[in-house]
Structure formats: structure tokens, C-alpha cells
Design a protein that fits this description.
The chain has 206 residues and is of the alpha/beta class. Helices cover 22% and strands 31% of the residues. It is globular, with a radius of gyration of 16 Å.
């Protein structure tokens, strides 16, 4: 499974491009930078078949509507964060940018344990509340797309509509997973789940 990562927008949000066969791809999170992403997709000769959102904050959804309209592909978001796709108050666009936010007009809601199929890939949804109430991780083959739940040596903030107790519970879930995964985060560099279980200070004492 090939994964390409580019950074988009004011907060350098990672957008992950995952090949899913027959010239298709899956996009995980789209920050403010639809034109840059479109150029990258043209360069890779890939067409999006689905957009998966790890949560609803502006810096992860700002470019979604433009890409959705261009490629006519479905958008998936956890039901708890769905309101963020249409409200710049809820997604903190008013706080994070001076740019205009374009609301997402079509999307499908997902729940914990759902499976999303796109091309030859299947993505399993795990609800990992904490950064937001609808934050999720997506598992596909040996990869984990963690959004702002888990970073290398860190975790996402819980003071932007999140909850620290929920975050601790989500980290407990991730700590008990026996298999190792390559972790593609919402910001910064990638890591592995085994490394974070061992070295991430936020896992200690759980």
C-alpha cells in the first residue's frame, strides 16, 4: 500500500494520499490548500475515491468541499463532528484563519467499528475521543491514520472542544493493541504504534 503525504494550510496539516488500485486513491484530511493537492494528484495520476476525515477542525477540513466537487467523491466524518463541516464556529475557522471557510454540503456520518471500502482497500474506524468528541483513527492493512489523536512523542490538544479524560481513555485503547502499525499523524512526522506505546510520555501510567 503506497502512502504519500503533503502538508496543507496555515498549520501544516498532513494530507495523506493512499493508492487504492486502478488509479484511485483515498484522501485522509484536507487542509487549506486544495489547489496544491490537486496538482499533486495530477502529478501522481490519481483520482480520489473517498475523503476520510479524522475530525472536524478547520485545519483538517478547509479544502474538502473544493476537492469533493472536483472529483465527486464521498466524504466520511464521525457523527459527533459532523456539525463542524457546516459551521465555522464549531470547526474554529474563526479562530484559526482569516480565510473564508467553504462548508461541506454532502457527507456521510460514521460510527465506531464501521468499515469503509474504497477501491481495493478497507478502513476500520476506531473512535478516539479527546481532541474532539468525534475524533477517529483509521486502520488499513499495516497503517494507522491517527489525525490529531496521536503524534510522535505527543498527543493532540484537548482545549479546543475536546476532553482530557476522553483522551486518556482513547490512549488506553491504543496502548492495548498488540499489533504494530505505521502511524500517519495529522501533523509532524510519521511514527509506529509500538514506538509510541514504549516511548510516548502520554502512555506512561495508563
Amino acid at each position: 500500500m503506497k502512502v504519500y503525504t503533503i502538508t496543507l494550510g496555515e498549520l501544516a496539516t498532513n494530507c495523506h494520499i493512499i493508492e487504492c488500485g486502478d488509479g484511485g486513491c483515498v484522501l485522509v484530511d484536507i487542509g487549506n490548500g486544495a489547489l496544491k493537492l490537486q496538482k499533486k494528484l495530477t502529478e501522481l495520476d490519481l483520482t480520489p475515491k473517498a475523503i476520510l476525515l479524522t475530525h472536524g477542525h478547520y485545519d483538517h477540513v478547509a479544502g474538502v468541499e473544493k476537492i469533493r466537487k472536483i472529483y465527486n467523491c464521498p466524504v466520511y466524518v464521525h457523527e459527533n463532528d459532523a456539525v463542524m463541516l457546516t459551521s465555522e464556529q464549531a470547526n474554529l475557522a474563526w479562530q484559526l484563519t482569516t480565510a473564508d471557510y467553504i462548508p461541506v454540503t454532502e457527507y456521510q456520518t460514521i460510527q465506531d467499528g464501521d468499515t469503509i471500502k474504497a477501491g481495493n482497500l478497507e478502513f476500520r474506524v476506531m473512535l478516539t475521543k479527546g481532541h474532539t468528541s468525534g475524533s477517529v483513527c483509521y486502520f488499513c492493512e499495516d497503517c494507522l491514520f491517527s489525525g490529531d489523536t496521536l503524534f510522535r512523542n505527543g498527543v493532540g490538544r484537548t482545549d479546543l472542544g475536546g476532553n482530557s479524560q476522553d483522551m486518556m481513555q482513547s490512549l488506553r485503547k491504543l496502548k492495548t493493541i498488540p499489533e504494530d502499525y505505521k502511524v500517519y499523524c495529522g501533523h509532524f512526522e510519521s511514527t509506529t504504534l509500538a514506538r509510541e506505546q514504549k516511548n510516548n510520555p502520554y502512555f506512561r501510567g495508563l
